[in-house]
Amino acid sequence: MRIITYNVNGIRSAVKKGFIDWLKTDPADIICLQEIKANKEDVPEKEINDAGYSIYSFSAQKKGYSGVAILTKMVPDAVIYGNGSMQSDAEGRVIRADFGTITLINAYFPSGTSGDERQGYKYQWLNEFLEYIEELKKSRTQLILCGDYNICHKPIDIHDPIGNKKSSGFLPEERAWMDVFFGKGYIDSFREFNKNPHQYSWWSTRANSRENNKGWRIDYISVSEPLKSHLKHSEILPHIKHSDHCPVFLELTELHTL
Description:
Elements: E1 2-7, H1 11-16, H2 19-23, E2 30-34, H3 45-50, E3 54-58, E4 68-72, E5 78-81, H4 86-90, E6 94-99, E7 102-108, H5 116-137, E8 142-148, H6 172-183, E9 186-188, H7 189-193, E10 202-203, E11 215-216, E12 219-224, E13 231-236, E14 248-252
Parallel strand pairs: 1-2, 7-8
Antiparallel strand pairs: 1-14, 2-4, 3-4, 5-6, 6-7, 8-12, 9-12, 10-11, 13-14
Helix pairs in contact: 5-6
């Protein structure tokens, strides 16, 4: 099973930058998109189907905002839209697909960069999301959690940890939530394979940040403990450029439970 998580910063914008041609190269079996910024009728479903993928999308009620989608070559047994939290679901932040005993969750974590109110909601969302996945894990033990988490966990995950210590996305409270999250048995799949610094998945559009690799690693594919032995390979793909983010890739070995 090959999985990608990718914040496309507007699926229609990404399509104009060659996203469909990239899909045709067969980059993964399942691709989780965040921030699609499109209602269902505006998603280029036919082009995605023609590239070999079925698409399941969950849009925000607000037009041109947020939204998530799962593109898959594997047929899911079930797709669940939202996680039952009213504001999160109105913002189109969580979609789930079950493949046999595997449950894949694609989530677009809120950003707190626009001010205190959204930062406060980010903390609320984080707590609600953790409660949701912990409850789900009681019956669905094999979880894959893809998404734009909008948090750098460690200083190694950000180009300037000192200068950004008061920036949303690297605040002590956010990083402490990540400690709690990983402490509950979830595994940062990328760090299982790559311990090196300067590995980022998002760059500001200002000051040639991407060209100078002054970025943040805020996009993750985490797995629950029962899937740890199936982790085969993970990498970040900064050469793919349809967005201010880039894809993050994970390959799992054959899962006999599927």
